[in-house]
Every structure is written in C-alpha cells, then in structure tokens.
Amino acid sequence: NKYVYSFHEGKKEMKSLLGGKGANLAEMTNIGLPVPSGFTITTAACIRYYDENKILWNELLDEIHDQLMGLEKRIGKSFSDENNPLLVSVRSGSVFSMPGMMDTILNLGLNDISVKGLANSTGNERFAYDSYRRFIQMFSDVAMGIPKVRFESLLEEMKENKGIIEDTDLNAEDLKVLVEKYKEVYLNELNEEFPQDPIKQLELSIKAVFDSWNNPRAKVYRRLHNISDNLGTAVNVQSMVFGNMGDTSGTGVAFTRNPATGENHLFGEYLINAQGEDVVAGIRTPDEISHLKDIMPEVYDEFVKITHTLENHYKDMQDIEFTIENGKLYILQTRNGKRTAQAGIRVAVDLVHEGLINKEEAIMRVEPNQLNQLLHPTFAESTLKEAIIIAKGLAASPGATSGKIYFHADDVVEAKARGERAILVRQETSPEDIEGMVAAEGILTARGGMTSHAAVVARGMGKCCVAGCSDIRVSEETKIMRTKDQTFNEGDFISLDGSTGIVYKGDIEKVQPTLGGSFGEFMEWVDEVRVMGVRANADNPKDAAQALEFGAEGIGLCRTEHMFFEETRVMSVRKMILATTLEERKSALDELLPVQRQDFYELYEAMEGKPVTVRLLDPPLHEFLPVKDEDIKELAEAMNVSFDDLKDRVEGLAEFNPMLGHRGCRLAVTYPEIYRMQVRAIIEAAIDIKEKGHEDIYPEIMIPLIGHINELKYVKDEVLKEINLVFEERNNTVKYMIGTMLEVPRAAITADEIATEAEFFSFGTNDLTQMGFGFSRDDAGKFLNEYVEKGIFEKDPFQEIDRAGVGKLMEIAIEYGRKTNPNLKLGICGEHGGEPNSVEFCHQIGLHYVSCSPFRIPIAKLAAAQAEV
Ligand code: ADP
Ligand code: MG
Ligand code: MG
C-alpha cells in the first residue's frame, strides 16, 4: 500500500488521493513547468493517521525517508549540509481547496549548522538568518502551538530599540541575536531545545498538518461549504525556493482572468524580496502584476506564457502562486480560481466562445446558489449623487450593502443576533474571523490586496467586500475607524460598494439589478438544455412581472390569502369570517368579489397567456381577525353588533393547533360560498381577459389540504357548479383545470383515488414535511438546529427535501396517481422548489415543473439544467 508519491508519479486526476495542491503540482511537473521538486503524502495516510491514534507508523516513515533520499539525490542537496543544505516546505492540501484554513511550514531543515550552509551557498548571511528566525516562529506556532506574539513582540522590541520601522532594515547580526532569543522562547515554553534534527522537524510538521485538518476554522469552513469531515488532507513536502533573496527575487499570486468580473486579463500581485504568505497576509501592500513587466521583462513573459499553458490545460481560469529566486521563475501552485458569480458566468461563456469547453460544461461550471449574488441589489444611482464618500479601497467582492460597523468578529455575530445589519471592519482579517465574516453584511479592511484573506473569503461567500482601504485607520482596540477628517465609532452606519471599492457614510438606498450580457446568453443555454419547467410563486402583478423578467414560465402558486391582507380589504374579510348568517356572509363576499376579480385580471394580464395556478383560501380564518380591542371595536361598529358579542366570536375561532385545524378545503366544507366566490372571480376574470382580446389564459384551480377523496369530490362539485353558472351567465367559456395541493400524507398514499378527480398535483412540500415528520413548521426552528449539529439530520428538511421520507411520499403519490390518471400534471410549490438539491430530486422523480420565489428562478433553472446534463 503506497502512501507517498513523488511529483513525477502523480497527475491531476489523482486529486482525491493527493489533494488538489499535490495533484496539480504533479501535473505541472509532468507537463514540464518549473516546479520545485517534492513529494506528496496521501489523504489516505491522513485518514489512517487518525485511525492510528495520531501516530506516524513505521512503514509510512520508511516511505517518507525513501522519498526524501530521492529528493536529495534529484536536486543535489541534503539535510543539515554545511555548504548547500536542503530546505523544504511542508504544505497542507485537501481535495477541495480551503484557502488559508490549514497550515503550512516553510524553510524546514534549518538548524544551527544548515543556516551557515545557507549563508555560504547564497553568500547572503542576512537572508539565511532571516529564514531561520521565520522558520523557528512558524514551526513553533504551527507545529508546537506556541503563540506567535511571543516571537513578534521580540521582533518589535528589537526594531524599537534600534529605531527602525521595516523588518528588512534588520541586519544579519540583529537576526542572529533574534534567532538565539527565539530558541530561548522555545526552550522556556516547552522545556526542551528547539529540534535541530531536520527529520524530527519534518515528522512533527507532518503531524501538525494532519492535525490542522481538524482545527476549528477548517471545520467551520467545511460546514459552510458542505465539505465532508472524512476526506483528510494530503501533505506536500517540497524543496524551498526563495523569493526573499534580494531585489531580483520575489513572490506573487495571479489569476488568469479577473476573479471579480471575469474579464480576460491577467490579474494579480507580487512583492519583491518576500516569501510565502507575505502577499496574502497583507503585511506589505503588493504591486500589480503588470508592473513586473517593467522590472523583470523576461520573467514576466515566461509567466504569461505559463498562464496560457495552464488555462488551456485545465480549461478553466487558474489561480497561480509563483516565486522568483534570483531571476528564475518557479510555479508553486495552480488551482481553478475562486470567482464571483458574475465572473463565473463571464468566464464560462467566454470559454465556450474560445472553444475550450462546450455549453453543457459551461452550465456545470456555475454553482446555482451563486446566482443569488447576481440578483443582488446595487445602490440607487439617484441617491449616490448626494452620498458622502469617506474612503476608497479595492473592489474586492461586488455587491452593495450598508450596516453598522463592528471591529471584532464576535461583536458582528452578536449584532446579527440582535437583528442588526453589521459590517466587519478590520485592519485585515484572518481565518479566525470566519464566523464574523459569515454573519456580516459586508467586510471592510484597511490592509491587504485583492488576494488577501478578506477578499478571497468574501468572494467565496458572495459577500460584499472592500479591502486594502488605506484611506482609513482602524483601531480594533479602541473600536474606532478614522478617515482623513472624520471619526467613526462602533455602531455607526456606513455603506460599501464592493464593485467600485467606495465606502460611503450612512445607510444608502439600494435598487434591484438588471440582467443581460453574459448572464442572458448563459441563461439561454440553460433554457436550451433544461426540460423541467420553472414557474414562480407570485401573488400580485408586481411579483408576477418580476418573475417574468427572471424568466418564469408561469405562476405555480398564487396564494389568494395574500390578496386579503391588504388594509382596505381585510375589513370585508373579517365581516365574512365573523358573519353569523349565510346572508351576512354572502354580503361580505359580494364586497370581495370585484376586488378579487380585478386581482386575477391584472395577474393574468401580467402573465401574457402563461399558466396561472390559483390556490383557493388556505390559512385558518382567525389569522385575519383583529387582536386589539380597539380594532374589534371598530369592526363591531361597522358590523352593527356589540363589542362583547364580537369579541366572543373572535375568541371562539381560536384553535389549539391551527396548522392542523380549520383550514384549506376544510373551510370550504363548512363555508362553500367562500370558494365559490373565489372561483367566480377566477373564471370571470379569465373570460374578461379573453373578451378584451388578450392572450387566452388557462387558470389552474388548486384545492389545498386534501387528504381524502371525498373531500375533493365535495369541494370540486361546488367549484364546478360555480364555473358552469358563470359560463352560462357570460355565454362564454374558458379552458381551466382543477387539481389539488398534495401535502397531506394520507393523500400521497391514496393518490390513486385522488387522481381520479384531480388533473394535477402540486406538491406542497412545506406541509408535507410538517405532517410527514410531525414537526410544527412554526416551532421546529427551535430544535432542528440541534438535529443537524448532533448529526441526526444532515440538513434541515424544511430547507432541503428529505428524499428518503418526504421524497418517498412524493414518489408514491406519483406512481399511484399515474395509475388512474396517466395524464396527471405534476409540480411542486413548496419552498424546496428553489433549492438546487431539491430541484435535482424533482427532476429525477419526473415533475413537470418547480415553482419558487421570483428571485430564485434563475437558480432553479440552472439546477434543473444541471440535473439534465
Ligand atoms: P495555502 O494553501 O494556505 O496557500 P501553501 O501551501 O500554498 O498554503 O503555502 C503558503 C505559501 O508558502 C504560499 O505563498 C506558497 O507559495 C509558499 N510556499 C509553499 N511552498 C514553498 C516552497 N517550496 N518554496 C517557496 N515558497 C513556498
Ligand atoms: Mg497556496
Ligand atoms: Mg400548505
């Protein structure tokens, strides 16, 4: 069983074994790119390490030593050499990239002897001792858990004593002194000498990388991105190259295209005379990659050539780490670059045009939920004119957002819990801030570039971010942010524009985006590939228009009760509910009929002939009733009854368990005249539309909460009587359908009976989940989180459909329903209809359409297309 592979032995297809970084280092080695030599310890080894109680077993150590000897031979250096020592990096690398979440150790192999060798071989003593002190600090921190500040404070102290500002102004003698002090810290902290044996350093570091798989921030990151905890990380051991050898050395990161917009130009940053994380950590502000052309033209040209090679090879935008050692270029990492939704679509569309991928591949490149970002609001142009600009930073992750500023991740989390919109303001962020970043509306940092931690993580989360904003001074300690002439305290409102990098004072109004360009083209391809229909849940003409703009193919759920809540109408609704006689009720319904008819008319008009499913009244009646005495009084006057009498009636309608109470079709059993009024409005409006010469409308009348065939028979009979009455009166007809919400478990398992009377089923998966599990939708929030945290459920079943249970009920309903009604039309109108994983399931079980909120239509469409590919 092989646990260690040299870069020559791997390839990109071995990602799950070698991790993403290792597989790509191998691939690049084998296509002839300048990659420092090394080897990869597999993820399988990491998994076994945990099984072995976190011990590196002997056979593994043997394999590592064999590979090490191979490496020494290949590059002609060896550990602890007095003249030309081998130094390596020990790098984590999991299957899915988790930027900055796990640990890496650089310059390993340095000790009191090899540091002299490094000085000798490079003729640069300062550099050698600088590397040694970096290594001691990194190793102590990452592998041995000694807090970084122990070392950093010594460094600061020395700089202060010498009156210098930049680390680079320390000379070799200073650094030698520091190295001694660092080793003392190590001794004091751990009661043992700093390990001089490189093999021991290596083993401890490998263990540290394995251990970092389970550090808290890596766990949070995995939870956030749905990455399994069982994959483990690989460890890459790679010979060091040095970007910190002077002015002809440097290090950088570049994207082959712009990760914020997708534009096809090289995008990145570099620092001269720097190592490793310096660029990402935002310690010094780096230079734009294009400037490299001026100072090292040949290196720049070679790099550009390599970026093209890598893009063509991987057929996707790449995120590349490189280092220049004394004018020689090395590539240290490549991966598919993280990008915003906007960039994701632009790149996918461009790659199709460039002939690198086909449309189906393009469709698979974009994560449906990411589209959310594109549908996000921007600041209103009109209000921007008066807005006060307080600073400008880098446009690190697009979007527009406002909120109160907080300086610590914890404070943001608390503010969010209080219901505030919070913006995290930091000098720079680090992986420990991850939970605050999740909770924040937006992120603002004073330091760091486009590839800094804040920028990368924010883009991944689709969160608005302005980074490297040097116009502001941030004091996290005193919780103050200063601009040139103003001071902002915790809790003050600011607004961020992540597309321009501009920071505004106050809380600025936002507007909805318009869609077109690459997005339009992409969605055309999605529509070509997709077979399942996508409709919208919309209750009024405005939502319907929005839905159409996002490409809805009809309305899958119009909740008529939403039409009743409007202030002017609720009085009539209340009268209807509280009526004691049929006469009274009918007169209230007569008031409602014209308004309801007008609603439907406008809705049909907006939908331009597309199907509209109207659900008859569903919620328990008391939801409409007044609660406050003064409102009851007002209503009593309007109804000409006494206050006490009315109050009794209101109280009489209260239920112990309203969601399982007098609602849905059960209302129509008691008060058939309510549904008859609604049906009349639906049909009359349809005939009106037809007579006005508009596109024919084809209403689908949906009866909610059916659990028994006889309920459906009874209600349908009433509905049909009213329809025929209208047809007669108007001497005209329209096409229509009558179907049912499929949301009561009993209906699912008697679907063969139900389907004899229903032309369509629309799965109401919110109720089906509620009744299937017996979880009250309104109360489950209190305890379902715990189910997820304790691993009892993988996901909240109200968010992602429970395929095994609720999904099974759907499958049974479809199978039985089709037995007696092969033409049965099938859809879903629960919240799940806009959730990608559930949409995929709906596709698999053969639904004709999903229906979701207007803003999720593009997401549902993409998920449906992906299910097809
Ligand atoms: P991460 O996954 O957090 O990016 P990496 O393993 O890529 O961690 O390493 C962190 C930094 O160290 C990167 O900037 C990388 O380029 C640099 N680095 C890693 N290995 C070497 C090496 N052998 N020589 C020089 N720099 C290295
Ligand atoms: Mg890296
Ligand atoms: Mg329901």
Automatic annotation (TrEMBL):
Family in the record: Belongs to the PEP-utilizing enzyme family.
UniProt entry keywords in alphabetical sequence: ATP-binding, Kinase, Magnesium, Metal-binding, Nucleotide-binding, Pyruvate, Transferase
Domain named PEP-utilising enzyme mobile: residues: 420-501
NCBIfam families given in the database record: PRK05878.1, pyru_phos_dikin
Catalyzed reactions: pyruvate + phosphate + ATP = phosphoenolpyruvate + AMP + diphosphate + H(+)
Positions of Mg(2+) binding: E743, D767
UniProt KW Chloroplast keyword: no
Listed cofactors: Mg(2+)
SUPFAM superfamilies reported for this sequence: Glutathione synthetase ATP-binding domain-like (SSF56059), Phosphoenolpyruvate/pyruvate domain (SSF51621), Phosphohistidine domain (SSF52009)
Domain Pyruvate phosphate dikinase AMP/ATP-binding: from-to ranges: 55-293, 301-343
Protein name: Pyruvate, phosphate dikinase
Domain PEP-utilising enzyme C-terminal: 518-868
GO MF annotation terms: ATP binding; kinase activity; metal ion binding; pyruvate, phosphate dikinase activity
Active site residues per record: H453 (tele-phosphohistidine intermediate), C829 (proton donor)
